[in-house]
Specification:
The chain is α/β, with parallel strands linked by helices. The protein has three helices and nine strands.
Length: 147
């Protein structure tokens, strides 16, 4: 009897396991959601688009990705009226090339972790109330420009 029970359980598991799809959000997506937690005000266009049940953030508002790897290459949130701080999680977006957070209400200083985005080519932060210095080694990146 135990043998048949074992066979039945194994069969049941194979049916359930092959028909259950589990999606998990990519590392870049988790990073963006974590970054959003530092914001005091987020417009509905972002809060409804940025969804933890997606597998990648590539279809989210303001996000540009590599078509093959689905890594985040650009974050363009210019003019969305976001207020809050830019969290240190920004440094986890290792493939980030373009960051445009202009015309919002970001405040505080730029996190040093932004220096971890070694592929960053363009950084646009005007029309915010940011203070402090831009991390020194950003200027050392190849093709980097501060707009």
């Amino acid at each position: 009897m135990k043998f048949y029970s074992f066979i039945f359980l194994r069969f049941l598991c194979s049916v359930v396991c092959t028909h259950t799809e589990v999606y998990s959000l990519s590392f870049d997506g988790v990073t963006l959601l974590s970054l959003q937690e530092h914001w005091d005000s987020v417009p509905p266009s972002i809060s409804t688009s940025w969804n933890h049940s997606d597998s990648t953030p590539c279809s989210w508002v303001g996000i540009g990705c590599d078509k093959n790897s689905h890594n985040v290459l650009s974050l363009n949130l210019s003019g969305y009226g976001i207020s809050g701080q830019i969290g240190p999680e920004i440094g986890h977006l290792k493939r980030l090339q373009t960051l445009d957070l202009s015309s919002n209400s970001f405040f505080g200083s730029l996190p040093q972790e932004l220096s971890n985005c070694s592929l960053l080519e363009s950084l646009t932060l005007d029309y915010n109330t940011l203070s402090g210095e831009i991390p020194r080694n950003l200027a050392e990146f190849k093709d980097f420009k501060l707009v």
